[in-house]
Amino acid sequence: GENVEQHPSTLSVQEGDSAVIKCTYSDSASNYFPWYKQELGKRPQLIIDIRSNVGEKKDQRIAVTLNKTAKHFSLHITETQPEDSAVYFCAASISSNTGKLIFGQGTTLQVKP
Amino acid sequence: DADVTQTPRNRITKTGKRIMLECSQTKGHDRMYWYRQDPGLGLRLIYYSFDVKDINKGEISDGYSVSRQAQAKFSLSLESAIPNQTALYFCATSHMGEREQFFGPGTRLTVL
Description:
The complex is a heterodimer. Chain A has no helices and eleven strands. By secondary structure, chain A is an all-beta fold. In chain A, the strands form two sheets. In chain A, strands 2, 4, 5, 9, 10 and 11 form a six-stranded mixed β-sheet that branches. In chain A, strand 4 and strand 5 form a beta hairpin. Chain A starts with a strand and ends with a strand. Helices cover about 0% and strands about 55% of the residues of chain B.
């Protein structure tokens, strides 16, 4: 079955710096790659996603890149702010019919003021 | 606002007890999911359902059962709780044809 590996497990940056979180997936049939953000004590919420027919997607300070050949995708956050501090989860999905998501292990991002 | 809710929000129980976690949604979504979250392991899928009477196993279904009593309700049961089922449990929903999942607030379960 599908497996998603996420690195690093923790990441600490200074406010204003960039942060990059990387994920690799095992099943080449995966075609949908969302990123969820979970603030402390809150529920996970979708922040950005990318489909396999696109190589990059941006939304203000966040961007996601996908390399299908290498089976990895990354989340880039620029000009980090303290409110970016949270746990970030990547995920992969093979089928829109099932809607099943396989999540990575999570990255705890700390942005120091 | 349409939402996903979970009850209880916190529960402490003892080994061997039966416990049920409830999930309700007012989003009108047909698909519902149960996940557990453990530190360092991310979110792992326990069961999912496309509609009433439809139940599918996820990655880690052993020791759990579910019931989809209505489109808006999806319950997770632990027939005989054990300490390694201590975790944060999330319910999620999605609409057929759309891939974003909407999560409930979570239930923190402690099995002593």
